[in-house]
Amino acid sequence: MGGKLGLPEVLVILAIALLLFGPGKLADLGKGLGEGIKNFKSAIKDGEEGPEKKS
Question: Does any domain span residue 53?
Fold first, then answer.
């Protein structure tokens, strides 16, 4: 029990999510999650460059 997720565990989680949300909602959820990660990475990158530009 090292806390690592293998392929069988991930497949079970995806199957349960598909049953709970349905294919349409799951696609929207994935799209929203991807956009959120992209915005987070962009904010981190801007934060790292910001203090250098202000000086």
Answer: yes
